[in-house]
Amino acid sequence: MKRILLSVGLAVWLSGCAHHDDVRPSSDGVHNIMLFSDSRDAGSKEALKQARHYCKQADMVAYVVNLDIIYNSDTPESTYITQKGVANAVEAAGMAMWIFGRNSVDDAGAAMTIGGGIADGALGNPYDVRLNFKCG
């Protein structure tokens, strides 16, 4: 059991070390990051985090040249945001029922949690985040 817990803990810790996988270095000094995200805020934060880490390796600071976030889906953005909120609410309510419920209530909560997670995953990552930056 200890080995399993140690392995899971190590995997979680190492997954937090994904530093700047999306950075595309450039010879002219203006580097690019392109990634997909499920929200504008999360996408810009992730891109900036990767830029900072990339520049920090050379003891420099990241300076944003340009940041573009484009919503890219056939579903209207307002509908996507509503659906995302509903999926997250169902998942959270299900989690509470799963943890605090008894008998069939916790079973329903488990189903809601899983269903909300599936719905959230099915919505995808419609935000195309493009960050250009320099290290200085």
Automatic annotation (TrEMBL):
It comes from the Bacteria. PROSITE patterns: PROKAR_LIPOPROTEIN. This is Lipoprotein.
